[in-house]
Design brief:
The protein has one domain (about 5-50, about 70-150). Helix content is about 30%, strand content about 10%. The strands form 3 sheets. A 3-stranded antiparallel β-sheet has the order 4-3-7, with no helix packed on it. The chain has a two-stranded antiparallel ribbon with strand order 1-2. It starts with 5 loop residues before the first helix and ends in a 10-residue tail after the last strand. The protein contains 3 helices and 7 strands. Strand 3 (about 105) and strand 4 form a beta hairpin. It is an alpha+beta fold and about 160 residues long. The relative contact order is 0.15.
Length: about 160
């Protein structure tokens, strides 16, 4: 706990700790997505020029990037998907499942984010399990759960989005 403010540790409520944890986890997830995207960009550039490792890194024998991507697993069928195609796969292959209506309204985003998964995505399945995810953007996805600040859980009824 060396990285936590001592006053926060001494006085924070459980709700405050949960909120800070979720914010930190969302930031970590965003950076993990960004790192994966940068890795894939690096691989594509190295593959395009047929590069081998720079001289500064002699332990790397050759380009060890994956052929095209690091797959995401669909939370509905557990099938690996090209990350750029996961949203399309979920919308088309699982069109018979109603959409998840969960949203996130946060000061860190422009507008309200909608979960792109279908209803009943669950823990232990796919890349995100029970977490809600936004559409993939230039720096990855935003991931949240029902207890995040500004989150509206999935609902069933006339107020559900189409």
């Amino acid at each position: 706990m060396a990285h936590l403010d001592h006053d926060f540790v001494a006085r924070a409520s459980t709700d405050a700790i949960r909120a800070q944890y979720e914010r930190a986890q969302a930031t970590a997830d965003m950076w993990a997505d960004r790192a994966r995207d940068l890795f894939l960009l690096l691989c594509a550039r190295e593959d395009a020029r047929g590069a081998t490792a720079p001289a500064a890194r002699p332990t790397r024998k050759a380009n060890t990037c994956p052929a095209s991507y690091v797959p995401e697993t669909c939370p509905h069928c557990d099938e690996p998907q090209d990350p750029s195609q996961t949203d399309k796969h979920v919308a088309e292959a699982h069109a018979n499942i109603p959409p998840c209506t969960a949203t996130l309204d946060s000061e860190y985003h422009d507008g309200v984010l909608h979960c792109v998964l279908r209803a009943w995505h669950r823990s232990g399945h796919g890349e995100y399990g029970e977490y809600h995810v936004s559409a993939r953007g230039p720096v990855g996805r935003t991931v949240w759960n029902d207890t995040a600040i500004g989150a509206t859980p999935h609902s069933v009824g006339p107020e559900s989005r189409p």
